[in-house]
Amino acid sequence: MASRTATRLVHPAVGELEFTTVLTALSDPVRLAIVARLAEVEPDGELACTTFALPVSKSTQSGHFRSLREAGVIHQRDEGTRRLNRLRRADLDARFPGLLDLVIPQGREIVASWA
Amino acid sequence: MASRTATRLVHPAVGELEFTTVLTALSDPVRLAIVARLAEVEPDGELACTTFALPVSKSTQSGHFRSLREAGVIHQRDEGTRRLNRLRRADLDARFPGLLDLVIPQGREIVASWA
């Protein structure tokens, strides 16, 4: 049973996605890395925030996930104590065809540069 | 003869272009509109800053052109009292294939929404 005190996670509808807002969300190496990692578990795969090995503090990481959710790039939901993330591939492809295919390889390069 | 007091305009080399920096530069409606307008005069067309009918003040406009230049999206040069702008299509296509083709239609939509 879901906790009654869980934060309500707000997501823009597909028709509300704004190109410049999405670009802003993607204009960061950590956020591009998150997108690239989520792209590996498409189409319906979800990854908990804790499974991302990102070179930033936990609170900074949370801010990056929130930016991506508020821009409409990812969907988040809480399950018990975990927050699960999923790439909004279908919505993004519908509104901005080709954008994800262009940015995902850039995200992979960033992840590779950290290894 | 060029003025000796002209500002030196700095441009990143093609190898120095950073994907996230370019995305940041493109994450703004006015800057996307500038890119779309410059795309109309490709490949070698240059447009003076004063020829862009943008819904922002002159100083704000100058800041947008500077952001685009510093990110490597446009090339600027001074000719007399005019500052001329050119899209760095070849450099951007070489580094980030498909990016300009994806953003230019978005810039056109923004320009159309202002009309």
Describe the fold and architecture.
The structure is a homodimer of 115-residue chains. Chain A is globular, with a radius of gyration of 14 Å. In chain A, strand 2 (74-79) and strand 3 form a beta hairpin. The first copy, chain A, contains five helices and three strands; from the N terminus they run ααβαββαα. The termini of chain A are far apart. The first copy, chain A, has a three-stranded antiparallel β-sheet. Chain A has helices at residues 19-26, 29-39, 58-71, 89-95, 99-114; strands spanning 47-48, 74-79, 82-87. By secondary structure, chain A is an alpha+beta fold. Chains A and B meet through helix 1 and helix 5 of A and helix 1 and helix 5 of B.
Assembly status: homodimer
Shape of chain A: globular
- The SS-based structural class of chain A is alpha+beta
In total, how many beta strands of chain A? Answer: 3
Q: Strands of the largest sheet of chain A, in order across it?
A: 1-3-2
Span of the ends, CA to CA of chain A: 39 Å
Q: Helicity of chain A, in percent?
A: 40-55%
What is the mean pLDDT of chain A? 93
Alpha-carbon Rg of chain A, integer = 14 Å
Give the strand content of chain A: 5-15%
Greatest contact pair? A-B, 16 and 16 residues
Largest sheet of chain A: 3 strands, antiparallel
What's the total helix number of chain A? 5
Q: Any low-confidence stretches of chain A, pLDDT <50, length ≥5? A: none
Reading the helices and strands of chain A in chain order gives HHEHEEHH
